[in-house]
Amino acid sequence: MKKMNVAIIGDKFMGKAHSNAWKQAGYFFDLPIQPVLKVACGRNAEQLKEFAQRWGWEEVETDWRKVVGRKDIDIVDVSTPTYLHHDIVIAAAKAGKHIYCEKPTAVSYQEAKEMYQAVKAAKGKHYINFNYRRCPAIQLAKRLIDEGKLGRIYHWRGAYLQSWIMDPAFPLTWHLRKETAGAGPQYDLGSHNVDLARFLVGEVKSVMAMTAHFITERPLPDESVARTFQAGSKGTEKGKVGVEDAAFMTLEFENGALGAVESTRFAGGRKNYNYFEVYGSKGSILFDMERMNELEYFSMEDPDYAQGFRTILATEPVHAYVANWWPPGHAIGYEHEHVHAVVDFLKAVDSDKEMTPNLYDGMKVMQVLDAGLESARTGKKVALKDME
Ligand code: SOE
Questions:
Q1: What is the pTM of this model?
Q2: What domains can be seen in the chain, in order of their start residue?
Q3: What is the tens place of the pLDDT at every residue in 229-288?
Q4: 226 CA distance to ligand 1 centroid (A)?
Q5: Residue 197: closest CA among 107, 132, 247
Q6: Given ligand 1 and candidates 78, 187, 189, which is best to mutate, with the most ligand atoms within 8 Å of its CB?
Q7: Nearest to 332 by CA among 3, 28, 109, 8
Q8: Is 195 in the pocket of ligand 1 (CB under 6 A)?
Q9: In what order do the strands lie in the sheet with 246-253?
Q10: Cα 168 to Cα 165: distance, rounded to the nearest angstrom
């Protein structure tokens, strides 16, 4: 079988999720290319060594430029904090690599545009990791919509709610600084939601938004801390929070549908509540990531005496990707979406076909998100065409 060498840059949460995906994909799916876990790159040499040993990366390197410049590397996996995506992606595109990049795309729409220009001019394939698209229940939602089962779409209602920074003692990690994250939940969570809205409903035409800042100062983090959920602070010294704590947007779609997108890290009890509803002239669907194997479906075509939401357990072989895992009813999880993305990426590379979502989609999502931030700043509706 053809082999390709993968370099991963970033060894924290996404580094782990992607390493697992590169490793597992070939056990469950017939891959056209065998990915070789060649080199792992991270800043902290000691943590990196431990990471590489655990996941089976053959080599380690602390300088991403050296990794991207290596002739033997075919695929660059960008799993770093957001502010590094721009330079790494552009360098990797210029070096002719295939690119597998984490979301949010960049710290601004402007940067995302530059990244897209670079990959467009290069020959490698590119992917932006909006992993939720590859959840079988969301693939089912897409299928129902494409088959016309929902009819004309009237509404998108998306909410991505978390609670991990509600404690004011939670330190000022890179997610809370404008220079490293670009924005707060508007980017981190809203990017997933807007991607799903574009995937299931269509292109966005205009946006109105409001943001809120609840906690404006936080303790500075311990240097070794990068992973949000294990963060510790180094004492009483504080720094200014540079991003919003919550962002709520309304969307006008090009097809006339109206949408709402809520993104917050201040929803107590919500851990990873990535939730959406789609309402159409013939039916409705609801999805909740915390119950990711299920899709709620309501059809107006059912007899009136039997109408109501039904819960479809999307674990049958007929559902996307599921036949390669376990028998019906044996649920799958978050990490499987990442495995599915790796499988499709390798197929795209092998067949020289576009992978979706790619850095074009990543750029379009950033355009919507920045339109939202602009609207929140000015108090005005922002048309996407004015953002070009
Ligand atoms: C943190 O908010 C986070 O890890 C996001 O960055 C991920 O994209 C999301 O899948 C889960 O929450």
A1: 0.96
A2: 2-132 (3.40.50.720), 133-333+366-377 (3.30.360.10)
A3: 455 665 678 999 999 999 999 999 999 999 999 999 999 999 999 999 999 999 999 999
A4: 13
A5: 132
A6: 189
A7: 28
A8: no
A9: 310-313, 294-299, 283-288, 273-280, 153-161, 258-264, 246-253, 204-212, 382-383
A10: 7
The position carrying tokens 């995906």 is: 21
With the most atoms of ligand 1 within 8 angstroms of its CB, the residue from 83, 188, 228, 288 to mutate is 188
Tokens standing for 241?
Answer: 């929070």
Ligand 1 atom showing the smallest separation from residue 192 Cα: 8
Distance of CA 209 to the CA centre of its chain: 21
Confirm or reject: Cβ of 129 under 6 Å from ligand 1.
no
Within 10 angstroms of residue 346's Cβ, the number of other Cβ atoms is 27
263 lines ligand 1 (CB under 6 A): no
Between CA 374 and CA 249 the distance in angstroms is 11
CA-nearest residue, atom 6 of ligand 1: 188
Query: How crowded is residue 94: how many other Cβ atoms within 10 Å of its Cβ?
Result: 15
Tokens of 308: 């109501």
Rg (CA), the chain: 21
List Cβ neighbours of 27 (8 Å cut-off, separation of 6 or more).
Answer: none
